Amino acid sequence: QVQLVESGGGSVEPGSSLRLSCAASGFAMGDYAMGWFRQAPGKEREGIACIGSLDTTYYTQSLQGRVKISRDNAKNAAYLQVNSLMPEDTAIYYCAAITRYCTSRWKEKDYEYWGQGTQVTVSS
Predict the structure, then answer these.
(1) In degrees rounded to 5, what are phi and psi of residue 28?
(2) Burial (Cβ within 10 Å: 0-12, 13-18, ≥19) of residue 111
(3) Residue-level pLDDT at 82
(4) Which letter does DSSP use for residue 74 in this model?
(5) Helix (H) or strand (E) holding 80
(6) Residues 37, 94: contact at Cβ < 8 Å?
(7) Tens of pLDDT along the chain (124 residues)?
(8) What is the CA radius of gyration of the chain?
């Protein structure tokens, strides 16, 4: 059974950092690119970052410099570090898997597997 389980979200103050984790099971994560998306209240889901099976990374321009994606195939896990959090970062954060490369990194429909998401709330 394929599963992606996100964790690490929570309620934090502006300026804080969070490291989100995505635990993968039921498929060979090493053969997949892993992406992170988020959906803020009342908005469409947007792509944030993608890391290919060969560790090439891509970031959405609006968040570049504040986020870092990484993966540990030995642990079947992917991570998203988000720094300098702002209230507008409040969203549900999702991880997803797409075959091998990040070529279609922002196309949700091309991702095969999705997690249920983890809530991040940024407020003072």
Answers:
(1) -85, 90
(2) buried
(3) 98
(4) G
(5) strand 77-82
(6) yes
(7) 999 999 999 999 999 999 999 999 999 999 999 999 999 999 999 999 999 999 999 999 999 899 999 999 999 999 999 999 999 999 999 999 999 899 888 999 999 999 999 999 999 9
(8) 13
Is 81:19 a contact under the CB 8 Å cutoff?
Answer: yes
CA 93 from chain centre, in angstroms, equals 6
Residues 32 and 98: beta-carbon distance below 8 Å: yes
CA-wise closest residue to 53 among 24, 82, 21: 24
First and final CA of the chain: distance in angstroms? 40
Of 97, 89, 94, the residue nearest 11 (C-alpha): 89
The three-state DSSP-derived secondary structure of 1-69 is: CCEEEEECCEEECCCCCEEEEEEEECCCHHHEEEEEEEECCCCCCEEEEEECCCCCEEECCCCECCEEE
Report the amino acid identity of residue 107: K
Residues 90, 106, 108, 72, Cα dihedral to 10°: -80
